[in-house]
Design goal:
alpha/beta, Rossmann fold, seven-stranded mixed sheet, 7 strands, 39% helix, binds S-adenosylmethionine
Length: 208
């Protein structure tokens, strides 16, 4: 963290708002904005939050689903306990982690992922890693999402976005690309919403 970065963060209105309103991160406002437009999470939804730490999205999800909903969060790094959120530490690509998720909830209405790999600074490499992670998220979604469920996933702008949409888009009724206002202008992140899963869950025989 450079002094410049710390200074910029202190001036950032979303960072200050997140601290004042008790969200774990400024990322919370990205989900609020996208969800108010697309209604991916609603009252009573069962939500799987991938790449959840420090917990901004999980808190927004929890507030949105209310007492009748479920929020399961997964991350490589620990997150402060949030009353009502079931946190599973680990790598979402590890089958044992997925097994633990399914032991808590067998079927989800929404999979949301703000997961980002450790950045190397090499844009091509980082875009490739982000594609691989989002690919894993959508593969998991085909296992855990109910029919008509939705996925919200983070990507970096580039041709990989179309690769992801070409592969998984046909499984959903609609696709939306979004850059929320609270996403930093200098960031190349973009979010893709895949809504209305057409088929039932694809469960491997013998798997969880
Ligand atoms: C931008 S942060 C998420 C912020 C979070 N949505 C919030 O609102 O507070 C990205 C997270 O993705 C996690 N992540 C990256 N790769 C992962 C993986 N393979 N499995 C689980 N989490 C992962 C990182 O550890 C990091 O905490």
């Amino acid at each position: 963290m450079t002094k410049d970065w710390i200074r910029q963060r202190k001036r950032d209105p979303y960072y200050r708002k997140a601290r004042a309103e008790g969200y774990g991160s400024r990322a919370a406002y990205k989900l609020k904005e996208m969800n108010s437009r697309l209604h991916i999470i609603t009252t009573g939804s069962r939500v799987l939050d991938i790449g959840a730490s420090p917990g901004g999205w999980s808190k927004v999800a929890l507030e949105t689903v209310g007492p009748g909903g479920v929020v399961v969060a997964v991350d490589l790094v620990p997150m402060d306990a949030l009353d009502g959120v079931k946190f599973i530490p680990g790598d979402i690509e590890d089958p044992l982690v997925l097994e633990k998720v399914l032991n808590i909830c067998r079927e989800f209405d929404a999979v949301i992922s703000d997961a980002a790999p450790k950045l190397s600074g090499n844009r091509t490499l980082d875009r490739g890693r982000t594609l691989a992670l989002s690919w894993a998220v959508l593969t998991i979604a085909s296992r855990v999402l109910r029919k008509r469920g939705s996925v919200l996933v983070k990507m970096f702008q580039g041709s990989e976005v179309e690769e992801l949409i070409d592969e998984f888009g046909p499984q959903y009724s609609s696709i939306d690309r979004m850059k929320p206002r609270s996403s930093l202008q200098r960031s190349i992140e973009i979010f893709i919403a895949f809504r209305g899963k057409k088929d039932d869950r694809q469960i491997d025989p013998g798997a969880v």
